[in-house]
Amino acid sequence: MTATATATPTAPAVRPAPATAPAVRTTAVVTGLGIAAPNGLGTEDYWRATLAGESGLGRVTRFDPSQYPSTIGGEVPGYVAEEHIPSRLMPQTDHMTRLALTAADWAVADAGIAPGDLPEYGMGVVTAASGGAVEFGQRELQNLWSQGKQYVSAYQSFAWFYAVNTGQISIRHKMRGPSGVLLTEQAGGVDSIGHARRHVRKGVPMVVSGGVDAALCPWGWVPQIASGLMSTVSDPSRAYLPFSAEASGYVPGEGGAILIVEDAESARERGAEHVYGAVAGYAATLDPAPGSGRPSALRRAAENALADAGVRPEDVDVVFADAAGTPELDRAEAKVLEEIFGARGVPVTAPKSMTGRLLAGGAALDAATALLALRDGVIPPTAGVAEADPGHRIDLVTGAREADLRTALVLARGHGGFNAALVLRRAH
Amino acid sequence: MVRRVVITGLGVVAPGGVGVKEYWELLTAGRTATRTISFYDASPFRSRVAAECDFDPAAAGLSPQETRRLDRAAQFAVVSTREALADSGLDTSALDPSRIGTSLGSAVGCTTSLEREYVVVSDGGRKWNVDHEYAVPELYRHFVPSSMAAEVGQEAGAEGPAAVVSTGCTSGLDSLGHAVELIREGTCDVMIAGATEAPISPITSACFDAIHATTPRNDTPESACRPFDRTRSGLVLGEGAAILVLEELESARRRGAHIYAEIAGFAARCNAYHMTGLKPDGREMAEAIDAALDEARLNPTAIDYINAHGSGTKMNDRHETGAFKRSLGDHAYATPVSSIKSMIGHSLGAIGSLEIAACALAMEHGVLPPTANLHEPDPELDLDYIPLTARERKTDTVLSVGSGFGGFQSAMLLARPERSAR
């Protein structure tokens, strides 16, 4: 950029159009994954457990849940922050941000990106967030209200807020390119990947995307109870059964996935070790106001994403469903799937039945899981559900199923009316 | 064919008044809206000054149900949305709702409601295991501020993509930048875009106190925010919202819309340096300015007004003055710069949109808002910061910048659509 050099009094104010035509639309691919999930810490642990149908749900231990109607959650097992996070970052980071930094480290390493491989301004960070670093925030609210303002952490101003993961990841990896933070509740993971692709298409070689969330503290629990959508079943194996006749609500979990989205050409040039798949299509919509009489916009999100990818419904080999776990929301999603694919027209799965819904991390983990499924040619199961409620005319995958997978559709919905859809294609 | 994006409607809730008209009167009068905090007893705090909105939800047109359901920041956003839509003359019910999107910036979401409800369910901070039986039904909506984007989108009849953009204090620029992208790429034809914030609450006071970010100048609250002045001593918290109706240029022209300005360029960068600190050279902000100029295909000499971040801290003043010189070269000395935060405080995630609204109005009226309270210029800062009184000047190209916790640096350029080469 030569702005300073051209800033002379005689320079014309308006520059002529560049002689070269705009670059052709590039392909955005995923070259690295970092996963922290309730049923596995690290990509391969998680993937093995997920294929085996091993659930990470259990009675919450991070706080005593006995006074609450809901007691089941998904906690990331075996995570010792000190093993992953520099000591000077410990006082200024919440559990959520530590998990996010760790997943980002793994994703960058998985992509084989070493410092200096890419220009600093050619690397961006776009993460999803939902309620911020809630546990950190609760502690500081408690310090303020029970002890006084001098007990509030000097880090509170940024440690709890929605942008914290993007900010900390960008600092840790010296990523100075276009970055962002999107909030669409559970749909955010898909939106962050779609937005990362947007940056890549504008010429940014690499964008860290996805979401990692953690709100397993009382101040994260009580608002979810107030939403009325949480399951109150106390048996961890029966609490979150999306699409089942027993569906009773959702179970929250913590964790998520970080995905490295790269320009395919740039990834090839730097000798990326592997390509999980391409971000082929993306779309997002907002439902009309409740009571407006207009239909939900979930179907349009899915159809627009398919159109964006240039694929027909019959090209889709598997759907990773949003799987809200309440009868009404499951019915709405199953109906959309039937409208697009026909009755039982495509395998549908919800591996989040093993992790719970991870807020901003959930759809990101679904996208990562879909890429692993494409890589290995196997659809992970919806655990704990013997069969779908017959009222839902979907082919629900209840045991790991091998298949020749080329194209996956990930659906996500966020509380309040957000819908997002992502089409992922297997790398050749 | 590049799709270009123009501003065709404005709606504002700001300290000093509700509505665009009052906002512009305040800014051009050089009047300040900073005062001693009245929302709660701020006496324990080091900084007890803020720019509060005198906002009556009922007078602003909200129903009792809306007032109960919505956090203050969401109330600002809905009221601003209605004003912006009316100002644009756009009948969204006659459009395809799937082609209308929503992009709303906010740094701290529904923090005021969350803190209020926290105090109830925790029994004044006594309980770690907060009590769900006292939780209001709206609590989850406040917990996930994405609810505010849904509220704005549904208010406007928008069924395209919607999101809250939350990049700290650049949220209000970044949400507009996001909206511009959605129109340019062809996903939407109209965006309801802007930002809102209502952060004035004890926890915000406490966290800014803890890092001495806010001014302790409590004795003269009306002149407490002094960007570029030798005596500046920190930012003054503010609140408010600005919502803009953005449209694709050709369709705006076809319907004969009034066009305030084109959003000709936008770029965001991270300093990847520190969550709250800034380097004095302003390199990353300069990178953002350069990239925004590239996108707008404008030379720096085209810029004839800069709306500065001007938060009222020494670190910021040096950082951005350095950035302007880096990007504009000698032209920086010929370009008037001002900070409206001197009058309306720093409303965190909302301010970037409020500043773009001010820039659009500056172009509309040929008047540049001043930097209030600038009596003793910092000798190390040698640009023209428009002290005290508004200045008449026809402007065709305006730069607005923002800088935020997390290391975010953003720059946006407004231009007259007939001038831009895009």
- Report the C-alpha radius of gyration of chain B, rounded: 20 Å
Return the string of H and E elements of chain A.
Answer: HEEHEEHEHHHEHEHEHEHEHEHEEEEE
Task: Let me know the CATH homologous superfamily of chain B.
Answer: Thiolase/Chalcone synthase
The mean pLDDT of chain B is 96
Give the CA-based shape of chain B: globular
The CATH topology label of chain B is Peroxisomal Thiolase, Chain A, domain 1
Largest interface: A-B, 102 and 108 residues
The count of domains of chain A is 2
N- and C-termini, Cα separation of chain B? 10 Å
Tell me the number of helical segments of chain A per DSSP (H or I, 4 or more residues long): 12
Helix percent of chain B reads 25-40%
Query: CATH homologous superfamily of the largest domain in chain A, by name?
Result: Thiolase/Chalcone synthase
> Largest sheet of chain B at a glance?
11 strands, mixed
Assembly type of the shown chains? heterodimer
For the secondary structure, the number of strands of chain A is 16
- Helicity level of chain A: 25-40%
**Helix and strand pattern of chain B:** EEHEEHHEHHHEHEHEEHEHEHEHHEEEE
Whole-number total of structural domains of chain B: 1
Uncertain spans of chain A: 1-10
